[in-house]
Amino acid sequence: MSGDSAIQYEKQGSVSHIWLDRPDVLNAYNTAMRDQLYETLGAVAEDDEVAVVLLRGRGRSFCAGADLTEFGTAPSQAIAREVRWQRDVWCRLSELSVPVICAIHGHCIGSGVEISLLCDLRLASADATFAMPEVRLGMIPAAGGTQTLTRSLGFSAALDLLLTGRRIDAVEARRIGLVNQVLPSWDALNSEAESLAGQLAPVSRCAAAVKRAVCVGADLPLAMALETELRVGAQVTTGRAGLSETPVGGTV
Length: 252
What we know:
Layout: E1 7-12, E2 15-20, H1 31-45, E3 52-57, H2 77-84, H3 89-94, E4 100-104, E5 107-109, H4 111-117, E6 121-125, E7 129-131, H5 145-153, H6 155-164, E8 168-169, H7 170-176, E9 181-183, H8 186-200, H9 204-217, H10 222-238
Parallel strand pairs: 2-3, 3-4, 4-6, 5-7, 6-9
Antiparallel strand pairs: 1-2, 7-8
Helix pairs in contact: 4-5, 5-6, 9-10
């Protein structure tokens, strides 16, 4: 991406580094960011050398939510939502076969939370704050938040955040399972996230297989999920290629 892009991308070895890069507006999510992130994720998905993705935000925040100067000026909520979905970033992110690590600092609001929930591991710095304020603005989450938050936190904790719109700090986010780990500073967060990516990269095939088994099995009855685990494990053992091309739905 060029220097004035809303997304910056760099591949270091087998690790893909993706940065949300609108620091002057706390990385508010707009159509330019949507389009560029869509293209970047497509390139990542087609690159067989990529073993891990690390997603971060430049500047003082991860993502302060949707840019209301764009989405907030649409004639209706339905149109705003349609614009947000004209490039299905959410599907591309959720369907990446390799592990995706999200490093969160500063504001993680609305769309920022929704983006992070589509990642596999979420780390946060101690200064991170989280909120889903859409109900207070007369809207509902426009990028799957009602579903992904519930799947990650359970009904009670998800409804608490969705209905009240209240802000929570990193400690509470860790307690309810919104993030996996809290680091004391941005430097510590950045270091831990890169270290984790480095740990996962050498075991990328097994990591992708575990991710596949978990994601497919979560929507299946236990007996079928266990069969899925056996099949995925057999594919890893035999070194069969094409694991990332396995269709969703339990047939692996």
